[in-house]
Amino acid sequence: MIFLKTLATAVAFCGAIVASAQVEMTLVNGGTFRMGNSFEDLFEDELPVHSVNLKSFYIGTYEVSQGEWEAVMGENPSANKELGKNAPVEQISWFDAIEFCNKLSEKDGLTPCYKIGRNNAVTWNVAANGYRLPTEAEWEFAARGGNESRDYLYSGGNAVDDVAWHKGNSTGKSKVTGTKRPNELGLFDMSGNVWEWCWDWYSNSYNERAENNPQGPKVGMERCRRGGGWNFSFKSCRISNRLGTPPDMRFPYVGLRVVRNAQ
User: How much of the chain, in percent, has pLDDT values that exceed 90?
Assistant: First the structure.
């Protein structure tokens, strides 16, 4: 969704926060939650359920759209362009997402969060006020509805067709963002439509101890993506579902959602 704002500073808008000339953001107040699969034992990488403490942050109300991407990057890599600029951008790698976050930060006069070094090594300046990818913990907390969570299986409800585009109802393509019911925080498409890249390296299990603002493993081969997508089973749309993917790969069912520090 593109919002034509003349100011890049945060202003109140329909209960959310517009923190950009480009992207509508919603405040997620910090809190503590139980991260992982508390519903059914489907995959080992969703276990063990563990306690996480998070600071407040802003997250995109919608998945980044093709129009937003093109306004920043100057081109549209998406496979499905027939729905116009309000469809989610897709067919982007994790590295593409990192570059977008930095360029959007520069466009809004903010400090970029990422430094890209030799051999595409990416480091994160956690104090920077620019745009970035959510950590897995931030993504899951927001998808659950933050402190307003009603403990749904999917983001926004227990009836998947009400809240998510998936293989069973998508007719084989992504859809315009924001056409399904939002979750408790007013966030759209956190279940289904396109998968969303996260910052974290993927690992096949969680640490059991309580963690403060975890950033995931220090090294890995794959980056995490979350939320499920239009060509995957409805079970992929579960809030706790995780998947690891090489960061240089692109698919027509993987996009992103951006985050900013609130403090």
Answer: 83
SS3 73: helix
Decide if 214 contacts 155 (C-beta within 8 A): no
| CATH architecture, range 11-261 | Alpha-Beta Complex (3.90)
Domain ranges of the chain: 11-261
Query: If residue 254 lies in a helix (H) or strand (E), which one and from where to where?
Result: strand 254-255
Distance CA 199, CA 113 (A): 11
Other CB atoms within a 10 A radius of the CB of residue 41 amount to 8
Return the exposure string of 154-173: e unless at least 16 CB atoms fall within 10 Å of the residue's CB, then b: bbbbeebeebbbbbeebeee
99: confidence class by pLDDT, cuts 50, 70, 90: very high
Residue with tokens 């090489």: 246
* Full-model pTM: 0.92
Whether 86 and 97 have beta carbons less than 8 Å apart is answered as no
